[in-house]
Amino acid sequence: MSEWLDYLNDSTLVARFQRQCGLVLSDAGPRDSGGSTGKDHPLRSVTQRAGMTHGNVSENLHPQNSPEHNQKMNGYKGNEHLVMYVGQVLKDLLKLPRPLSPPVVKLEMRVDAEYGLPSTHAMAATAIAFTLLLSATSRIQFQFEVGLIVAVVLSSLVCLSRLYTGMHSLLDVLCGVWLSAGLMLLTYPYWEAFDRFQLTSPLSPPVLVALPLFLSYNYPQLDHYSPTRADTTTILGVAAGCSVGYWTNAQLGVTFEPPHGALPVALPPLTAGALAAGLARYLVGAAVLLATRWAVRAASLRALFAWYSVEPGDAPSAARRREIEVPSKFLTYSVVGLVNAVLVNRLFLLLGIL
After folding, report:
1. Which of 304, 293, 281, 306 is nearest to 333 (CA)?
2. pLDDT of residue 58
């Protein structure tokens, strides 16, 4: 078993896959040892047979709920936030390094300070694709086999992309898929109960805000700075804000539900008008959420810097301190989630694009 695990974790396996995709190192200079020190790393020079140059790609994966999705469907998606939190914590507890370079080409340097196992991208892709597939069967009329193929293809592409970018070993990716599948299997019988609690219980807002905030403050401490705590707090903040928003909508009776007994509904036709409305929702929603993020982040940091007497020159480093980073991130993204779940939908209705 040990030999098999070593084989799956071998960096040369990732490098071999990259070479099959046409990605190779252009020089033989010194490389990092897997990205567990928290230091900045020099950008690797890479070439492709197709002649394309790759730069850094952001790994800020925040599984948010789309404003146009109906209320009930979104109730099931707390499973994805659980999956992401478990994956992020396991990374910092296991502390297994990312693939070595050389032989691997690293295309995403921002997250190279993070540890590798498990791949949270693989976990999120598996959770999102298959949670939507399993929860949609009672809501929407579609051929399950087609949905299964789509879920497998989409999650597989994300998993392969983690090998292509050189950020994870095959073991990292497989463990991410298996962990996500295991968590889904354990929680699946309780999805309906969680959905009812989230949308109807008076305890839902305080519990679904206090618990994520507690988990954010008690995230495992490392001996160096890593963006995993900030990313995890962002994910939990979005989950908390969206949950409060869904509860608020349910109390107001604005849940975008079809008439009683009409489920599952037929998929609407994909027309030019539907595409235009979807694009309009995307642009309007993105503008509102980006503006919300900018305003709340600026205000929260200003208040926290004043509270902790942070000098202007110390602001960049101070923003990484737990007592500043966690409340700022959590407040910013919980408000973003709340605006996404409540106000953006109202704006869509006013503009006639929902």
Report:
1. 293
2. 33
